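Chain A, query sequence.
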Amino acid sequence: MIEGTILLVGCGKMGGALLDGWFAQGMNPVDAIIVEPSGRDTVPPCKKHRALTCLSTAREVPRDFRPDVVLFAVKPQVADDVVPAYAHLVAQQPVFLSVIAGKTTEYFRGKLGGGAIVRAMPNTPAAIGKAISVLYASPQVSAIQSRVCEVLMSAVGQVEWTADEAQMDAVTAVSGSGPAYVFLLAECLRDAGIEAGLPPALASKLAIATIGGAGALLEQSDSAPDVLRQNVTSPGGTTAAALNVLMGEGGLKPLMARAVAEATRRSKELAK
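Chain A, predicted structure.
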C-alpha cells in the first residue's frame, strides 16, 4: 500500500511506470502532484486518474503541499536546470529520491542546499513491473524514509540496497543500461538468422521468443548461468560450435567487460 504525499518531478517512461506501479499498489491520486513541462496530455496515468494534479513548473506547486517524498525522474542533461527549483522544500524535511543516472547524493545536496537523499537506479522493465532497482541512502536519511523509498521502488520490481555509493556507477552500467544490451542481442540474433536463410518474420520471432524464454528460465532456475549454459551444450554439437566463437579470443566476455567499463566511465562523467 502506497501512503504519504509524493511530488514527482518528470513523468516520462520511468516516471510513468512508477506512477502506474503506485496506483496498482493503491495510491490515492490526491496524494500526488506531477510536474511535467510537456503537459498533462503527455502523461498517460493523468488521463486515467482525473484527480491527479499535473503541473508544468515548480512554481505552480501549492505552497501548502507538503510532500513526504520528492522524486526526480528527469534526464541527467536537464538536472542542473530542474533540481535547484525544489531547494525550498528542504525545510519541510521530505526525502529526495532520485532515479537520475550518474547524479550523486552529494550533487543533490549541493543543488538543494542539504536534505535527505536516496539515489536509485531502476531499469526499463519497470514498464511491466519487472525492473530491478539498486538504492543508496545518504547518512541524513532515516530508517522510515529508507523504507518509504523501498516501497515506492518495489512497485515496479525488485529492490536491492548498497552501502557504497561508488558502486552505483557499475550498477548503472550493468542493470540500468543492461536491457539495451539484451535488445541488441535480440537484434543481432535476428539478423544472423536472416543471413542464414530464415524469413525476417520468423527470424525475429525466434530471436525474441528464445531470449525471453531463456531469461524466464534463468530467473526461475536455482542454477547459475554457467551451469545452464553447460546443460544445453553437447560436446561437438551445434551449440558448442557457436560457443567456440562467442567464447573465443575477443569474444563476448571481453567485449561485454569493455562495454560495462565504458558505461561505468560515462556514469562517473555524468556526476561531474
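The first strand starts at residue 6 and ends at 9. The chain has two domains: 6-166, 178-270.
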